[in-house]
Amino acid sequence: MALDVKFGVSTWLWTSPFNTSTLSLLPKIKEYGYDVVEIPVEDPALIDIPVVRQALHDNGLEAVICGAFGTSRDFTNEDASFHKTSFEYLDQCFEIAAGLDAKFVAGPMYSAVGKARLVSPEQKKVEWNRAVTNLRIVCQTARKFGLDIALETLNRFETDLINTCEELMQLIEDINEPEAKVILDGFHMNIEEPNPEAAIKLAGDKLIHFQVSENYRGTPGTGTAPWAAYKRGLEAINYQGVVSIESFTPDVKELAGAVCIWKPLVPSQDGFAKEGLEFLRKWASE
């Protein structure tokens, strides 16, 4: 059975941070055959909403907005000033998403990426409750914009709070707001999920975005990612959203260091985008 999905790609595949000059990628992304461009919001001040909106329109592309959660954006921190920074940042992300006709803001917004420690069960519970309390407020803000949030699991090397879909669904249950939805990323699932198909089924109709790359963050179809399991899971829940390639370039040193990419994964980032989409189209149609 063929999947009825759209295909997207993150501009992180080529560059960082997203700004007006990044829009020069859009004609190429459209030419390759993508429907959607993922816009990572590292610095909201760099994103001129009317200019980006026009560029999307001119190239016939839709936008997905993904947050970037560095050390200063952390809802689990004991210092409330970190929460304030996170709320202000997400408010700006919602403004961008609404201005670009996106449907949600995605990312691991419960905690700072890279906050991975062995903590006591008591400490983890405290941090979990902070995330729940703060994300309820985020959901209520999203509602005012007519948007959802898509919360993402990360592998154990990038967070100690939410590594599996089961943990994420518990977080969403505790948040108990209709705007709290799910994004799954095959790279993280390939590390953490014993059964990726079951994880996708567990997310069910809460799953509103699906990111992919290979087990080594390379071009889809060139590694050991369980593509058949992904497809069975997506078929089972009648997923009709976007399947989007997210990977990175070693040419942007700060971002590459954050995701531990120390060398080129492919001969060409353009080749990554073209060949990856060719594989995904065949995978989805078979």
Automatic annotation (TrEMBL):
GO terms for molecular function: isomerase activity. Residues 28-282 form the Xylose isomerase-like TIM barrel domain. Keywords: Isomerase. This is D-psicose/D-tagatose/L-ribulose 3-epimerase. It comes from Algoriphagus ratkowskyi.
